[in-house]
Amino acid sequence: MAETATRNQPDQTRAFAALCQLLGDRFTTAEALREQHGRGEAYHAPHLPDAVAFAESTEEVSRIVRICAEHAIPVVPFGVGTSLEGHVAAVRGGISLDLGHMSRVLAVHAEDLDVTVEAGVTRKQLNAHLRDTGLFFPIDPGADATIGGMAATRASGTNAVRYGTMRENVLGLTVVLADGRIIRTGGRARKSAAGYDLTRLFVGSEGTLGVITEITLKLYGIPEAISAAVCSFGSVDDAVRAVIQTIQAGIPVARIELLDELQMQGCIQYSKLEGYPAAPTLFYEFHGSEAGVKEQAEQAMAIAEDCGAEGFQWATRPEDRNRLWQARHDAYYAGLSLRPGAKSWVTDVCVPISALAECIHATREDVAQAGLLAPIVGHVGDGNFHLQMLVDPASPEEMAKAAALNKRLVRRAIAMGGTCTGEHGVGMGKMDSLAEEAGEAIEVMAAIKRTLDPLNILNPGKVVRV
Amino acid sequence: MAETATRNQPDQTRAFAALCQLLGDRFTTAEALREQHGRGEAYHAPHLPDAVAFAESTEEVSRIVRICAEHAIPVVPFGVGTSLEGHVAAVRGGISLDLGHMSRVLAVHAEDLDVTVEAGVTRKQLNAHLRDTGLFFPIDPGADATIGGMAATRASGTNAVRYGTMRENVLGLTVVLADGRIIRTGGRARKSAAGYDLTRLFVGSEGTLGVITEITLKLYGIPEAISAAVCSFGSVDDAVRAVIQTIQAGIPVARIELLDELQMQGCIQYSKLEGYPAAPTLFYEFHGSEAGVKEQAEQAMAIAEDCGAEGFQWATRPEDRNRLWQARHDAYYAGLSLRPGAKSWVTDVCVPISALAECIHATREDVAQAGLLAPIVGHVGDGNFHLQMLVDPASPEEMAKAAALNKRLVRRAIAMGGTCTGEHGVGMGKMDSLAEEAGEAIEVMAAIKRTLDPLNILNPGKVVRV
Hints:
Chains A, B: Its EC number is 1.1.2.4. Chains A, B: Keywords: FAD, Flavoprotein, Oxidoreductase, Transit peptide. 2 copies of one chain form a homodimer. By secondary structure, chain A is α+β, with helices and mostly antiparallel strands. Chain A has 4 domains: 9-100 and 446-452, Uridine Diphospho-n-acetylenolpyruvylglucosamine Reductase, domain 2; 105-221, Uridine Diphospho-n-acetylenolpyruvylglucosamine Reductase, domain 3; 225-332, Alpha-Beta Plaits; 339-426, Alpha-Beta Plaits. Chain A contains 17 helices and 18 strands. In chain A, the strands form 4 sheets. Chain A has a 7-stranded antiparallel β-sheet with strand order 15-12-14-13-17-18-16, sandwiched between helices. In chain A, strands 5-6-10-8-9 form a 5-stranded antiparallel β-sheet. The longest helix of chain A is centred in the C-terminal third of the chain and has 20 residues, at 396-415. At the A-B interface, strand 9, helix 8, strand 11, helix 9 and helix 11 of A face strand 9, helix 8, strand 11, helix 9 and helix 11 of B.
């Protein structure tokens, strides 16, 4: 099996001519567009594709992939470019396949609590579309990512502790395979024992096994009542202790988020969160009936108080809640603002919740010893947290420190029974970490990749080495 | 790729000698044991393995599979033999690999709500083991199946509407591959974006991609309060209407089960359910806080009354609830008792809930026209129901009628956006149905099977043709 797609210049010329004929001005080699498509939001160096193709239908994606397969041209699927581990970098050239024009909501089945969308629909667009139905889609990575990108990276976010991640919320997919064939996986049934779970094989495969073009998702009724609360703690350890006890008590929190003092400092400045101290802070949200929400909130607050929480602030009005959660969603940019000009090397791990306090504690000590600036924010109800290392990519010394810190963090999480990434994915940034975590199973992943993409044209150089 | 494992008598003789040396009296060709291992619980004709091997550890499973791979001997994993689509039939001979001796609960992590077990632990054994922890494992196929078998068939049961199926509740696996290599998939983190979701690829693969030897499962706190209720309806349509409205209202029922009048008749006789009419009936269960359960029950009962329910009976004492749910779990045997001497051809489909009333209605008309006796019972909160056709396998006419009815049911479900099996799996009984449902995607399943089991020794002749 060839490690790289083998192609030569005449191949590319012929392929590009065919793509140009198929797509007209939706196929471009313009520098500005190639630059825009060559990188996500994090520290990874950009790798520009040789061209960008904008597809408008599954059928068209199929034709594009067929042409690329014929000439062994790499195809890197692209949504809006908010990934954090270099997923969209065209490390071996080829085309960036932009699905952003595929932005139709195809069918809302309100009575079945499901919806089918094209891959380019963003999560905010979907929820705006659903506004009049009384339903919503809960998965919310910080950025306004596309549903296709979220499926491809197995995204989650603040609501995952209650509603699950893309793994639990994708019912079915339309996928274009590496040879251009179109398949449908799953369907609209809530459960199925029919054959291999291809849906979940493609969810999280980061564009390396197929191009996801349509997604059927579970929806949820907007809760009758929602309330949010914020409180601060004397230490991160105390805050994490409150989280652990809340989860172990089985309180069905919809969201429970930790921001350490550095992260809060960033959010207070960036999002004008006045009236909150720059201390370790938990953001809570409760969903349910009026009575249910009240009961949950009382139980959670009692636990928090036992752990030393103070300064409870409630946000029951929608505008107050939205301001709070917008600040939480902007935590990435708020973190960046702590060191103007720096790039963000953001890493995430996920551990069993009993190990969370120890993992965060050890990581903060490690950060301090390394002399780096790195706020922590986390979906701590799942045992998942992010470390946003603010680095100067021009400083080899800083980059080396960050790389070493990242490696130690990943090893710490794996040693605790956790995983090298809870939600950001592997991309090109965590291939070694994945290999370390998976052990012999990495060979099974590689075998599947070779089977489904024998020419290695689908987002090559990501997830797993073949 | 060879359609069948190629082997000859000398190969088998050598393999059996090696297995005998490895396992001693835990390797047997005794007729009685071969018979016991050659069939599940349903109508499928038995296919006896040539021998039965009892494994006691993952390492031993690995050695057994290595020997079989060397000599191209089929390996059919076996738990307790309660599957319904011929999963354990040794259609191409070889050995039945009995994992029943691997019945240790390896680690309970109560604080993380997870447990790791060997494949031969049964669901009742697990819950008995957990009794003092305040935790439970909710997935409950009617039979006391092994956790390994449940993972392999992506089992679910009455609690799936609230707690999900094995798909949602397996965190990680130890799997022996077709060449004897041992891999671990997933882990103890609640979520992960680390590479291809091998865990869910093996869950539901029915022993055709690997032998599952250890499973890490999610656990749940035993609810503070539980209540159960039973009510009957004038028609199945009315009962299904109540279910649909309950789900659409977002009431978090833990269980909502339909038994039609024929099934109730069987249960009343078989399980001595006195005081219940032989009418279409819903069984409900509610889990939560005292106040939450009361609120849920009131909402659900109001909907049921609107749909014409009558004769509400409550079961709040544990012994009454247990009696009720034991009767529900014994519905399969109760159905069988309606026609002494008959075999059960039980089939299940799952549809979007908005199509459930129409699907059940059309199916009941179809049963009446075919002149078959076939009670219906279902996990209707998921859109999943079972049709238990009581047939005389010696009557080719009856078997042909049942086969045709089954095919029409599957097509009806698929046409409604549903699936050919909600929880019983494919086995050898629904391979054509799966191919029909999957379309081109069946080729991807076959390609994965060929990659992970190139000799086609793992449960050959099941799920997908290669």
